[in-house]
Amino acid sequence: MEDNHDIFREVSEGIQKSDIGEAEKKKVFDILLNMRNQKINLMITGGTGVGKSSTINALFGREISRVGIHAEPETMEISKYELNDKITLWDSPGLGDGMKDTEHARKIVDLLHRKDSSGAYMIDLVLVIVDAASRDLGTTYSLISDVIVPNLGDDNDKRTRIIAALNKCDAVMPRHWDYTNSRPDAKLTAELDSRADTFRRRVKETTGVDVDTMYYSAGYKEDDNGEQDKPYNLAKLLSLILNHTPDKKRLVLMDNVSRDKEAWKSNDRDYSKDIRDSVSKGIRATAGAVTGAKIGATIAGPIGAVVGGIIGGIVGWFW
Ligand SMILES: Nc1nc2c(ncn2[C@@H]2O[C@H](COP(=O)(O)OP(=O)(O)O)[C@@H](O)[C@H]2O)c(=O)[nH]1
Ligand SMILES: [Mg+2]
Hints:
Blueprint: H1 7-17, H2 22-36, E1 40-46, H3 52-60, E2 79-82, E3 87-93, H4 101-113, E4 125-131, H5 138-148, H6 155-160, E5 162-167, E6 177-178, E7 183-184, H7 186-207, E8 212-215, H8 234-243, H9 250-256, H10 261-265, H11 272-291, H12 293-318
Parallel strand pairs: 1-3, 1-4, 4-5, 5-8
Antiparallel strand pairs: 2-3, 6-7
The structure holds guanosine-5'-diphosphate and magnesium ion.
Magnesium ion (MG) is lined by residues 52-53, 65.
Protein backbone atom coordinates (compact mmCIF):
# COMPACT_ATOMS: atom_id res chain seq x y z
CA MET A 1 0.00 0.00 0.00
CA GLU A 2 1.14 3.51 -0.79
CA ASP A 3 -0.42 4.98 2.32
CA ASN A 4 2.08 5.83 5.00
CA HIS A 5 -0.64 4.88 7.46
CA ASP A 6 -1.79 1.28 7.39
CA ILE A 7 -4.40 0.68 10.07
CA PHE A 8 -4.36 -3.08 9.62
CA ARG A 9 -0.62 -3.34 10.17
CA GLU A 10 -0.86 -1.12 13.25
CA VAL A 11 -3.71 -3.13 14.72
CA SER A 12 -1.80 -6.39 14.09
CA GLU A 13 1.26 -5.00 15.86
CA GLY A 14 -0.89 -3.85 18.77
CA ILE A 15 -2.52 -7.26 19.10
CA GLN A 16 0.89 -8.97 18.82
CA LYS A 17 2.11 -6.94 21.80
CA SER A 18 -1.07 -7.40 23.87
CA ASP A 19 -1.16 -10.05 26.60
CA ILE A 20 -3.95 -12.26 25.24
CA GLY A 21 -3.15 -15.95 24.71
CA GLU A 22 -1.59 -17.31 21.49
CA ALA A 23 -4.76 -19.18 20.50
CA GLU A 24 -6.80 -16.01 20.90
CA LYS A 25 -4.22 -14.01 18.98
CA LYS A 26 -4.51 -16.38 16.07
CA LYS A 27 -8.28 -15.91 16.08
CA VAL A 28 -7.89 -12.16 16.14
CA PHE A 29 -5.52 -12.28 13.16
CA ASP A 30 -8.04 -14.41 11.27
CA ILE A 31 -10.69 -11.80 11.99
CA LEU A 32 -8.41 -8.97 10.88
CA LEU A 33 -7.58 -10.80 7.67
CA ASN A 34 -11.27 -11.28 7.05
CA MET A 35 -11.94 -7.59 7.66
CA ARG A 36 -9.03 -6.52 5.49
CA ASN A 37 -10.56 -8.36 2.52
CA GLN A 38 -13.94 -6.65 2.81
CA LYS A 39 -15.17 -4.67 -0.15
CA ILE A 40 -17.19 -1.48 0.14
CA ASN A 41 -19.51 -0.12 -2.53
CA LEU A 42 -20.92 3.37 -2.08
CA MET A 43 -23.46 4.92 -4.41
CA ILE A 44 -23.33 8.70 -4.57
CA THR A 45 -26.30 10.25 -6.27
CA GLY A 46 -27.74 13.73 -6.81
CA GLY A 47 -28.20 16.27 -9.60
CA THR A 48 -25.34 17.42 -11.80
CA GLY A 49 -23.31 20.09 -10.01
CA VAL A 50 -24.45 19.34 -6.44
CA GLY A 51 -20.89 18.35 -5.53
CA LYS A 52 -20.68 14.57 -5.82
CA SER A 53 -17.14 14.60 -7.24
CA SER A 54 -16.02 17.26 -4.76
CA THR A 55 -17.38 15.17 -1.87
CA ILE A 56 -15.58 12.03 -3.03
CA ASN A 57 -12.34 13.98 -3.39
CA ALA A 58 -12.67 15.55 0.07
CA LEU A 59 -13.54 12.28 1.84
CA PHE A 60 -10.84 10.18 0.22
CA GLY A 61 -8.27 12.88 -0.34
CA ARG A 62 -7.52 12.11 -3.94
CA GLU A 63 -8.47 13.47 -7.30
CA ILE A 64 -10.25 10.43 -8.59
CA SER A 65 -12.88 12.36 -10.47
CA ARG A 66 -12.81 15.70 -12.23
CA VAL A 67 -14.87 18.40 -10.64
CA GLY A 68 -17.33 20.59 -12.48
CA ILE A 69 -17.09 18.81 -15.81
CA HIS A 70 -20.68 18.61 -16.88
CA ALA A 71 -21.70 15.22 -18.10
CA GLU A 72 -24.13 15.25 -20.99
CA PRO A 73 -27.47 15.24 -19.15
CA GLU A 74 -29.07 12.96 -21.70
CA THR A 75 -26.47 10.20 -21.31
CA MET A 76 -27.32 9.68 -17.62
CA GLU A 77 -24.54 7.20 -17.13
CA ILE A 78 -23.57 5.79 -13.76
CA SER A 79 -19.80 6.13 -13.48
CA LYS A 80 -17.89 3.50 -11.57
CA TYR A 81 -14.67 4.52 -9.82
CA GLU A 82 -12.48 1.92 -8.20
CA LEU A 83 -10.52 3.78 -5.55
CA ASN A 84 -8.54 0.56 -5.12
CA ASP A 85 -9.45 -3.14 -4.91
CA LYS A 86 -11.44 -2.50 -1.70
CA ILE A 87 -13.53 0.59 -2.35
CA THR A 88 -15.80 1.19 -5.31
CA LEU A 89 -17.79 4.37 -5.81
CA TRP A 90 -20.85 4.53 -8.06
CA ASP A 91 -21.44 8.12 -9.16
CA SER A 92 -24.96 8.51 -10.45
CA PRO A 93 -26.67 11.67 -11.69
CA GLY A 94 -30.08 12.39 -10.19
CA LEU A 95 -33.25 12.35 -12.21
CA GLY A 96 -33.78 15.01 -14.83
CA ASP A 97 -36.95 15.75 -16.76
CA GLY A 98 -35.78 13.85 -19.80
CA MET A 99 -36.95 10.78 -21.65
CA LYS A 100 -34.01 8.76 -20.36
CA ASP A 101 -35.20 8.98 -16.75
CA THR A 102 -36.97 5.64 -16.69
CA GLU A 103 -33.95 3.86 -18.06
CA HIS A 104 -31.63 5.62 -15.61
CA ALA A 105 -33.92 4.83 -12.69
CA ARG A 106 -33.90 1.19 -13.75
CA LYS A 107 -30.08 1.13 -13.66
CA ILE A 108 -30.12 2.51 -10.11
CA VAL A 109 -32.74 -0.04 -9.06
CA ASP A 110 -30.71 -2.89 -10.60
CA LEU A 111 -27.63 -1.84 -8.64
CA LEU A 112 -29.60 -1.55 -5.41
CA HIS A 113 -30.87 -5.10 -5.79
CA ARG A 114 -27.53 -6.64 -6.79
CA LYS A 115 -26.06 -9.11 -4.27
CA ASP A 116 -22.42 -10.05 -3.68
CA SER A 117 -21.08 -13.62 -3.45
CA SER A 118 -22.04 -13.85 0.23
CA GLY A 119 -25.65 -12.93 -0.52
CA ALA A 120 -25.43 -9.43 0.98
CA TYR A 121 -26.39 -6.31 -0.94
CA MET A 122 -23.47 -5.16 -3.09
CA ILE A 123 -24.25 -1.45 -2.55
CA ASP A 124 -23.65 -0.88 1.15
CA LEU A 125 -24.92 2.65 1.24
CA VAL A 126 -26.51 5.33 -0.92
CA LEU A 127 -25.39 8.88 -0.22
CA VAL A 128 -27.93 11.31 -1.68
CA ILE A 129 -26.38 14.72 -2.15
CA VAL A 130 -28.53 17.83 -2.37
CA ASP A 131 -27.63 21.47 -3.02
CA ALA A 132 -28.54 23.21 0.25
CA ALA A 133 -29.04 26.49 -1.63
CA SER A 134 -31.61 25.02 -4.01
CA ARG A 135 -35.28 25.69 -3.41
CA ASP A 136 -36.41 23.23 -6.06
CA LEU A 137 -35.85 19.79 -4.64
CA GLY A 138 -38.77 18.08 -6.38
CA THR A 139 -36.66 15.70 -8.48
CA THR A 140 -34.55 14.76 -5.45
CA TYR A 141 -37.66 13.91 -3.42
CA SER A 142 -38.91 11.71 -6.30
CA LEU A 143 -35.52 10.06 -6.63
CA ILE A 144 -35.61 9.15 -2.94
CA SER A 145 -39.28 8.20 -2.60
CA ASP A 146 -39.92 6.56 -6.00
CA VAL A 147 -36.56 5.03 -6.90
CA ILE A 148 -34.26 4.57 -3.91
CA VAL A 149 -36.21 3.89 -0.72
CA PRO A 150 -38.64 1.29 -2.18
CA ASN A 151 -35.64 -0.69 -3.44
CA LEU A 152 -33.40 -0.72 -0.38
CA GLY A 153 -34.78 -3.92 1.19
CA ASP A 154 -36.57 -4.51 4.48
CA ASP A 155 -37.39 -1.85 7.09
CA ASN A 156 -33.95 -2.08 8.65
CA ASP A 157 -32.20 -1.78 5.25
CA LYS A 158 -34.39 1.23 4.49
CA ARG A 159 -33.05 2.99 7.56
CA THR A 160 -29.41 1.97 7.19
CA ARG A 161 -28.69 1.96 3.46
CA ILE A 162 -29.37 5.66 2.81
CA ILE A 163 -28.07 9.02 4.05
CA ALA A 164 -29.09 12.45 2.76
CA ALA A 165 -26.58 15.29 2.88
CA LEU A 166 -27.14 18.96 1.99
CA ASN A 167 -23.92 20.26 0.43
CA LYS A 168 -22.66 23.78 -0.33
CA CYS A 169 -23.97 25.15 2.95
CA ASP A 170 -21.45 27.99 2.51
CA ALA A 171 -23.38 29.20 -0.54
CA VAL A 172 -26.78 29.54 1.18
CA MET A 173 -26.10 32.93 2.83
CA PRO A 174 -22.54 33.95 1.90
CA ARG A 175 -22.55 36.94 4.28
CA HIS A 176 -23.07 34.52 7.17
CA TRP A 177 -20.19 32.23 6.23
CA ASP A 178 -16.79 32.54 7.89
CA TYR A 179 -14.42 31.91 4.97
CA THR A 180 -11.31 31.93 7.15
CA ASN A 181 -12.44 29.17 9.48
CA SER A 182 -14.87 27.49 7.11
CA ARG A 183 -17.97 27.63 9.28
CA PRO A 184 -21.46 29.18 9.43
CA ASP A 185 -22.43 31.83 12.00
CA ALA A 186 -25.39 31.37 14.35
CA LYS A 187 -27.94 32.77 11.91
CA LEU A 188 -26.83 30.53 9.05
CA THR A 189 -26.66 27.54 11.41
CA ALA A 190 -30.30 28.09 12.34
CA GLU A 191 -31.25 28.38 8.66
CA LEU A 192 -29.35 25.18 7.77
CA ASP A 193 -30.88 23.29 10.70
CA SER A 194 -34.28 24.32 9.45
CA ARG A 195 -33.56 23.26 5.84
CA ALA A 196 -32.23 19.86 6.91
CA ASP A 197 -35.26 19.41 9.15
CA THR A 198 -37.70 20.31 6.36
CA PHE A 199 -35.93 17.88 4.06
CA ARG A 200 -36.09 15.07 6.61
CA ARG A 201 -39.79 15.67 7.27
CA ARG A 202 -40.67 15.77 3.56
CA VAL A 203 -38.91 12.44 3.02
CA LYS A 204 -40.60 10.94 6.07
CA GLU A 205 -44.02 12.04 4.79
CA THR A 206 -43.61 10.37 1.40
CA THR A 207 -41.60 7.27 2.40
CA GLY A 208 -42.39 6.70 6.07
CA VAL A 209 -38.64 6.42 6.65
CA ASP A 210 -36.51 8.58 8.93
CA VAL A 211 -33.55 9.18 6.65
CA ASP A 212 -30.49 10.54 8.45
CA THR A 213 -30.01 14.03 7.04
CA MET A 214 -27.13 16.45 7.61
CA TYR A 215 -25.51 19.48 6.00
CA TYR A 216 -21.89 20.17 5.09
CA SER A 217 -19.59 21.81 2.57
CA ALA A 218 -17.29 19.69 0.45
CA GLY A 219 -15.53 22.91 -0.52
CA TYR A 220 -15.65 25.10 -3.60
CA LYS A 221 -12.87 24.79 -6.15
CA GLU A 222 -12.15 27.63 -8.54
CA ASP A 223 -10.62 25.62 -11.39
CA ASP A 224 -8.61 22.51 -12.20
CA ASN A 225 -5.37 23.93 -10.82
CA GLY A 226 -6.91 25.61 -7.80
CA GLU A 227 -7.10 24.17 -4.33
CA GLN A 228 -10.44 22.99 -2.95
CA ASP A 229 -11.77 25.18 -0.10
CA LYS A 230 -11.65 23.60 3.36
CA PRO A 231 -14.69 21.44 4.04
CA TYR A 232 -17.16 21.91 6.87
CA ASN A 233 -18.76 18.97 8.73
CA LEU A 234 -16.76 16.41 6.74
CA ALA A 235 -15.91 14.48 9.93
CA LYS A 236 -19.61 14.51 10.80
CA LEU A 237 -20.35 13.07 7.36
CA LEU A 238 -17.66 10.41 7.81
CA SER A 239 -19.06 9.50 11.23
CA LEU A 240 -22.52 9.11 9.73
CA ILE A 241 -21.22 7.03 6.81
CA LEU A 242 -19.32 4.75 9.22
CA ASN A 243 -22.44 4.21 11.32
CA HIS A 244 -24.31 3.19 8.18
CA THR A 245 -21.54 0.85 6.97
CA PRO A 246 -21.73 -2.85 7.92
CA ASP A 247 -19.70 -3.62 11.09
CA LYS A 248 -16.99 -5.70 9.45
CA LYS A 249 -16.34 -3.11 6.72
CA ARG A 250 -15.70 -0.05 8.87
CA LEU A 251 -11.97 -0.59 9.31
CA VAL A 252 -11.42 -0.79 5.53
CA LEU A 253 -13.31 2.46 5.09
CA MET A 254 -11.29 4.16 7.83
CA ASP A 255 -8.07 2.88 6.28
CA ASN A 256 -8.87 4.78 3.07
CA VAL A 257 -10.08 8.20 4.18
CA SER A 258 -8.16 11.40 3.53
CA ARG A 259 -5.02 11.92 5.62
CA ASP A 260 -5.31 15.67 5.24
CA LYS A 261 -5.77 16.93 8.79
CA GLU A 262 -7.18 20.24 7.55
CA ALA A 263 -10.05 18.50 5.81
CA TRP A 264 -11.45 17.12 9.11
CA LYS A 265 -10.98 20.15 11.30
CA SER A 266 -14.09 22.31 11.00
CA ASN A 267 -17.28 20.70 12.31
CA ASP A 268 -20.29 21.64 14.42
CA ARG A 269 -18.59 19.65 17.20
CA ASP A 270 -15.70 17.20 17.70
CA TYR A 271 -16.46 13.84 16.03
CA SER A 272 -13.21 12.02 16.85
CA LYS A 273 -14.77 9.93 19.62
CA ASP A 274 -17.81 9.06 17.48
CA ILE A 275 -15.54 7.86 14.69
CA ARG A 276 -13.35 5.79 17.01
CA ASP A 277 -16.39 4.26 18.75
CA SER A 278 -18.07 3.39 15.48
CA VAL A 279 -15.02 1.54 14.15
CA SER A 280 -14.32 -0.19 17.49
CA LYS A 281 -17.91 -1.30 17.84
CA GLY A 282 -17.74 -2.70 14.30
CA ILE A 283 -14.66 -4.74 15.12
CA ARG A 284 -16.08 -6.05 18.37
CA ALA A 285 -19.32 -7.08 16.67
CA THR A 286 -17.37 -8.86 13.93
CA ALA A 287 -15.16 -10.67 16.45
CA GLY A 288 -18.24 -11.85 18.33
CA ALA A 289 -19.94 -13.03 15.14
CA VAL A 290 -16.87 -14.87 13.83
CA THR A 291 -15.71 -16.59 17.03
CA GLY A 292 -19.05 -17.20 18.72
CA ALA A 293 -20.40 -15.34 21.70
CA LYS A 294 -18.24 -17.06 24.34
CA ILE A 295 -14.80 -16.66 22.78
CA GLY A 296 -15.95 -13.37 21.30
CA ALA A 297 -16.57 -12.05 24.80
CA THR A 298 -13.05 -12.95 26.01
CA ILE A 299 -11.20 -11.41 23.10
CA ALA A 300 -13.57 -8.49 22.46
CA GLY A 301 -12.11 -6.49 25.34
CA PRO A 302 -8.45 -6.70 24.29
CA ILE A 303 -9.26 -6.08 20.61
CA GLY A 304 -11.44 -3.13 21.51
CA ALA A 305 -8.71 -1.66 23.71
CA VAL A 306 -5.97 -2.03 21.10
CA VAL A 307 -8.09 -0.80 18.21
CA GLY A 308 -9.64 1.99 20.24
CA GLY A 309 -6.17 3.26 21.06
CA ILE A 310 -4.92 3.10 17.49
CA ILE A 311 -8.00 4.67 15.92
CA GLY A 312 -7.92 7.25 18.67
CA GLY A 313 -4.35 8.02 17.70
CA ILE A 314 -5.16 8.37 14.03
CA VAL A 315 -8.33 10.33 14.61
CA GLY A 316 -6.62 12.52 17.18
CA TRP A 317 -3.86 12.99 14.65
CA PHE A 318 -6.43 14.41 12.26
CA TRP A 319 -7.67 17.08 14.60
N1 LIG B 1 -19.62 26.88 -2.79
C1 LIG B 1 -19.44 25.57 -2.89
N2 LIG B 1 -19.22 25.02 -4.10
C2 LIG B 1 -19.04 23.68 -4.16
C3 LIG B 1 -19.07 22.84 -3.02
N3 LIG B 1 -18.88 21.56 -3.42
C4 LIG B 1 -18.73 21.60 -4.75
N4 LIG B 1 -18.82 22.87 -5.22
C5 LIG B 1 -18.67 23.35 -6.60
O1 LIG B 1 -19.80 22.93 -7.38
C6 LIG B 1 -19.40 22.64 -8.71
C7 LIG B 1 -19.83 21.23 -9.08
O2 LIG B 1 -19.15 20.30 -8.26
P1 LIG B 1 -18.95 18.77 -8.68
O3 LIG B 1 -18.24 18.11 -7.55
O4 LIG B 1 -18.33 18.67 -10.02
O5 LIG B 1 -20.47 18.28 -8.77
P2 LIG B 1 -21.05 16.91 -9.37
O6 LIG B 1 -21.54 17.23 -10.75
O7 LIG B 1 -22.18 16.54 -8.47
O8 LIG B 1 -19.95 15.89 -9.37
C8 LIG B 1 -17.88 22.84 -8.75
O9 LIG B 1 -17.61 24.12 -9.25
C9 LIG B 1 -17.46 22.74 -7.29
O10 LIG B 1 -16.28 23.47 -7.00
C10 LIG B 1 -19.29 23.47 -1.74
O11 LIG B 1 -19.32 22.84 -0.68
N5 LIG B 1 -19.48 24.81 -1.74
MG1 LIG C 1 -19.10 14.78 -10.91
